[in-house]
Write a structure and sequence with these properties.
Blueprint lengths: L4 E3 L5 E3 L3 E6 L2 E6 L6 E4 L2 H27 L18
Antiparallel strand pairs: 1-2, 3-4, 4-5
Length: 89
């Protein structure tokens, strides 16, 4: 699957990421393959998916805000889209 992040007209970005879920005692755990440390647990797949989506969104928003704050001190910056095709086996 091609990894993509696109800016939408309303200023939001959409990221296509890979969620991995597995059953374990007490429910389902999931993590985002591309975001180290982002994981969530739920009683079932639907709950785990919802919680993982929220965790990934918060991670990306917090990271974006941190970058914006750092950019303010850099003077002139260039922002551009970076598209990466990843082959997995």
């Amino acid at each position: 699957m091609q990894q993509a992040k696109e800016m939408l007209d309303d200023g939001f970005a959409r990221a296509v990421l890979t969620a991995i879920f597995f059953d374990e005692e007490g429910g389902v755990t999931g993590f985002v393959e591309e975001l180290l440390g982002v994981s969530a647990h739920g009683r079932n797949l639907k709950e785990a998916r919802s919680r993982l989506t929220a965790a990934a969104r918060k991670y990306l928003q917090d990271n974006h805000e941190g970058v914006r704050q750092r950019m303010a001190s850099y003077g002139t910056v260039t922002r551009e889209r970076l598209f990466i095709d990843i082959t997995t086996t």
